[in-house]
Amino acid sequence: MHIPNSFRNQNVKEVKNFLTENSFGILINQTNGKLTGTHIPLLLDRDENGEDVLVGHISKSNPQGINFNNHEEVLAIFNGPHAYISSSWYEKENVPTWNYIAVHVYGVIQVIEGEDLLISLKTMVDKYEQGSKKPASIETMSDKTLALVHGIIGFRIKIHEIQAAYKLSQNRNDTDYHQIVDNLQQSEDPTARALASQMRRDTY
Looking at the predicted structure, is the pLDDT value of residue 20 above 50? Predict the structure, then answer.
């Protein structure tokens, strides 16, 4: 992805935290000569060698899995808060724009099966059940429910490149920057307010 230097985030820890907090992504690969994408949770994890991987699964009925066994390169896209930035928020006349956080992860996909697949499913369920009053668990599910595992393809993506764009008005002067944050904070759009919180966290 094209990222101007002023918007490129090379803070590895911060980007990994972003991937952990915004784990619902888009998995993209070539399927029968056509680019195909699926919206799925992709969890940042480590493999047996301590290397970063993304772990996920799709339905076996999804044609996107056809080439997974070929160890092909795939792209996973993750989005954070984003919002329109009005030109009226600037000290001097300028064009409107859009602020956003986006992370692209490139890597090679590998199919996982058996115990490795069950472990990945347990990790995923445990993560998303944390806020439940009565958390569900893979370990307590019936054999009938677990039989549905036969209908999915589990995989891990061995990451070889992460590109992170944090376009957060870093190129604006202090007056403009604070004016943008204040206007986003006053918005009725919760996504705009989340973007304001991110911008405050980065600079205040």
Answer: yes
Query: Domain spans of the chain?
Result: 5-172
Contact 63, 123 (CB under 8 A): no
Is 21 in contact with 32 (CB distance < 8 Å)? no
Residues 26 and 84: beta-carbon distance below 8 Å: no
Q: What pLDDT shows up at residue 107?
A: 97
* Predicted pLDDT of residue 204: 42
CA separation for the pair 178, 140 (Å, rounded): 50
Amino acid at 84: Y
- Say if residues 32 and 65 touch (Cβ distance below 8 Å): no
CB of 67 closer than 8 Å to CB of 39: no
Quote the distance between the C-alpha of residue 52 and its chain's center: 14
Query: How far, in Å, CA of 7 to CA of 179, rounded?
Result: 19
Query: The domain 5-172: what is its CATH number?
Result: 2.30.110.10
